[in-house]
Amino acid sequence: MGLHLPGASFVNPGTPLRDALTRYATEQAIRNTEQSGNYRPFYKQIDERAIVNAIVGLLASGGSTNHTLHLVAMAAAAGITINWDDFTDLSAVVPSMTRIYPNGQADVNHFQAAGGMSLLIRELLEAGLMHADIPTVFGTDMTAYTQEPFLEEGKLIWKEGPTTSHDSDVLRPVSNPFSPHRRPYRA
């Protein structure tokens, strides 16, 4: 959905990289204020495309069913109505690309080591399953989310993430998924 910095999800707390990301996120939040002239409130950032991206990401990753409730609420906060039929309809075309708990033995650390969100997003974008052209808090579109953060000489930078999985038992490409579609969600 583009609501956090690219690659920030799995950076451990108490590390120099996390501290740099926290500083950058704070600075970016200030850059996204009305006073900066680049105002990006939630309601301007989240539209139908961002909600579809979130559902696609959830389905491809096999994420928590609790996430479905959160997405319904987030969509409603942006004035968008989604229901279980929307999840079911998208599940018919979104491949199952991960085997992480609860639908596999790997945890999120294994997922990150296999290629993580940058690879998952890259695969979904390249397959045309996600909208790249949505506004993000980072100030770009979703293609920036194929990158991962690094510190180089104390400076925060982003580099392209993996282009192939480092563990196909955990994360697979769209071209070779665990299943060509997710099981439909039922209310």
From TrEMBL:
Q: Which SUPFAM superfamilies match?
A: IlvD/EDD N-terminal domain-like
Pfam families with a match to the protein in the record = ILVD_EDD_N
Question: Does the UniProt entry include the keyword Mitochondrion?
Answer: no
Give the Dihydroxy-acid/6-phosphogluconate dehydratase N-terminal domain ranges. 1-142
The GO terms this record gives for MF are:
phosphogluconate dehydratase activity
Q: Which GO terms describe its cellular component?
A: cytosol
Which of UniProt's keywords are assigned here? Lyase
**Residues covered by region (Disordered):** 162-187
Its family remark reads: Belongs to the IlvD/Edd family.
What is the recorded name of this protein? Dihydroxy-acid/6-phosphogluconate dehydratase N-terminal domain-containing protein
